[in-house]
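Notes, Module 5: Reading structure tokens.

Key idea: the token line is not a picture. It is a compressed description, and you learn to read it the same way you learned to read a sequence, by spotting repeated patterns. We will look at two proteins. The first is printed below with its tokens.
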Amino acid sequence: MIIIVCCFFAAQSFGQDVVKEDADAPVMTFEKTEHDFGKVPINSVAEWEFKFTNTGKKPIIVQNCSSGCGCTVSNCPKSDDQVMPGESRTIKMKYTRTGYENKFSQQVTVHSSAQNSPVILSIKGEVTKDAETAKN
């Protein structure tokens, strides 16, 4: 009976993943991770800067920012630029709206040394010929 009980508790402990979070790890805290441009004119460029702060206790190194589309460009901090605890930086996303009317939704994935990496930043809007209703 004792062997069965020991085997049961051993199986229970092996079945659970133990995740240790580093209380001192860097954390990227963004003011917001999504931006809606609303209506925007054709043949223009929409830009938005996402601001983040290192709310952890160790420096953050941003390794890269990647997008799935050539129409979306991001400007990340350089990989040799450490974001110290309490410091802030921005990641700029730029979307070129050319050719035709459509709704758009684009994402950039930010990979870093932060505990909450990767972070996905999103922009969206509607390209329209009516420049009077366009806003940024």
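Here is the second protein, with the sequence above and the tokens below, as before.
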Amino acid sequence: MKIREIKKNELSKIFPLAKEFIEDYRKITKPKKCVTIETALKNKKRIFTNDLKKGTGNIIVAEKDEEFIGYIFVLSFIPGIQKSDNRQGYISDLYIQKEFRKKKIAQKLSKEAEKWLKKKKINEIILDVNIVNINAKKLYLKLNYKEESIRMSKKLK
């Protein structure tokens, strides 16, 4: 198995994994109303393409027998936050195919994402974990991330 940065001409090879990421996330979070998987994937493709082109994002893949089995999408900024003096990066996606989980691939991808951010002079990583995504939370705690907040919501009637 290899861990490496994706090449721009390989971007289309990541989309089947990105679709699995979206589908798995929806199974875990069970959103009541949301855009279609096709629309979500189209948006993700646009974001991947733009951030790779600008150099503000990177996709690092886990590859086995020349097939992508997992990826991490990391950004050198926090989406939706205007530039600040804090040099913070953001992990947007981290996905490993089910049959390859529990093999420390996520940890290896995370370490490579950290290396990329350090090259960009980023000194902190931020990420969001849905409260029901217990496995992701365990992974990030094991990687020395600290809980900082809980996002809360309320439906208005």
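Summary for the second protein:
- The longest strand covers residues 67-75.
- The first helix runs from residue 11 to 29.
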